[in-house]
């Protein structure tokens, strides 16, 4: 009976409204309860905090402090101008270059978007949002400045025609964008958490929905959909009706892990026990103060999670594209540097500019 429960359930549904199929890969152990999905563990951080000594540290320069009053409509108001003293142009790589031949490379495309070019030639992208929010997110951006990008993305999807797979971690507007998705080449497979297909208008290729601790094969790369501590919503009344999670890309030589949005919990130790140590971890480090710490990681949380995962290379993301958290945009990288100094993790930290890439295969080989 136990072995049967662990079996993955796979079904294919043909949509009458469109020509492509949706394949569902489910795990009975983590089925939806009622109509709502739930995290496997509660977050380690409950309430509004503070949760760590760093919460009381002032990481800002005097020239970055500007007090602002709360308006009638605000988003994550913290009493300060969260972008004062921030220059988006300085976050952009001056040597941005995308090439199909960059195997063994990871390139940061802003926020949660990465181009992962495996050593086997497979090219995949995570959470592509290359413009402003769409749908209800677009409406919100018209009245809330924090929902607008701080600068243009360095690339559009139609410049990534060699990409054959796209993975989305969850359906929040800074991670799922239909305009960006539909710019990819015909035949590109879209990988989604369970029950997220209703939120996309995707015509480029097949859709695969996956549950926690399930896997499939994308060309020569094994794709695992893994848990995270987060939530989902794409409308006013659909909170937690679709799944959320993280992705692992395993080509048999290197494991690359993309955490998606997540809070810290014992889930990272569970993941390591099931998939083993991970070579490269792409970890979020933003939107963490106040009650958001339950579903977002601070930099020190991300360092601890990467240690739990047995990571060899740590690449942070999230900073500088939107001001969605309570913290100033300049704080997360400084807080990460402090955390690394104090915690002394046994992995390499690679901090990237938007559009900057790193040859992770060479980095891992040199570190042996």
TrEMBL record:
Transmembrane segments: none annotated. Gene3D superfamilies: Ribonuclease Z/Hydroxyacylglutathione hydrolase-like. Keywords: Hydrolase. The keyword rRNA-binding does not apply. Residues 125-316 form the Metallo-beta-lactamase domain. Pfam families: Lactamase_B_2 (PF12706). One of its GO terms (molecular function) is hydrolase activity. GO terms for cellular component: cytoplasm. SUPFAM superfamilies: Metallo-hydrolase/oxidoreductase. The keyword Membrane does not apply. This is Hydrolase. It comes from Pseudoalteromonas citrea.
């Amino acid at each position: 009976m136990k072995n049967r429960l662990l079996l993955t359930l796979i079904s294919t549904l043909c949509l009458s409204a469109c020509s492509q199929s949706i394949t569902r890969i489910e795990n009975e152990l983590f089925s939806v309860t009622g109509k709502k999905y739930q995290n496997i563990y509660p977050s380690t951080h409950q309430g509004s905090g503070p949760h760590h000594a760093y919460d009381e540290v002032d990481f800002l320069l005097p020239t970055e402090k500007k007090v602002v009053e709360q308006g009638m409509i605000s988003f994550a108001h913290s009493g300060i101008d969260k972008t004062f003293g921030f220059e988006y142009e300085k976050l952009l790589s001056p040597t941005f270059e995308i090439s199909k031949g960059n195997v063994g490379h990871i390139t940061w495309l802003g926020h949660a978007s990465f181009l992962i070019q495996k050593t086997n030639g497979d090219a995949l992208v995570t959470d592509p949002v290359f413009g402003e929010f769409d749908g209800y997110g677009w409406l919100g951006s018209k009245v809330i400045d924090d929902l607008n990008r701080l600068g243009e993305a360095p690339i559009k999807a139609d410049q990534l025609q060699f990409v054959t797979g796209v993975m989305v971690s969850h359906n929040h507007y800074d991670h799922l964008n239909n305009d960006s998705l539909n710019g990819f080449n015909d035949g590109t497979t879209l990988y989604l958490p369970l029950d997220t297909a209703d939120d996309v208008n995707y015509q480029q290729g097949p859709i695969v929905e996956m549950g926690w601790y399930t896997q499939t094969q994308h060309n020569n790369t094994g794709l695992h959909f893994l848990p995270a501590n987060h939530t989902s919503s794409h409308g006013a009344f659909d909170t937690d009706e679709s799944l959320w999670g993280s992705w692992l890309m395993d080509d048999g030589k290197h494991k690359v892990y993309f955490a998606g949005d997540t809070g810290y919990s014992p889930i990272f130790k569970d993941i390591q026990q099931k998939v083993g140590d991970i070579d490269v971890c792409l970890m979020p480090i933003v939107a963490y103060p106040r009650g958001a710490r339950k579903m977002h990681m601070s930099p020190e949380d991300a360092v601890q999670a990467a240690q739990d995962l047995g990571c060899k290379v740590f690449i942070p993301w999230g900073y500088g594209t939107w001001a969605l958290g309570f913290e100033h945009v300049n704080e997360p990288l400084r807080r990460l540097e402090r955390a690394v100094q104090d915690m002394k993790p046994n992995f390499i930290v690679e901090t990237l500019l938007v559009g900057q890439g790193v040859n992770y295969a060479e980095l891992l080989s040199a570190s042996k």
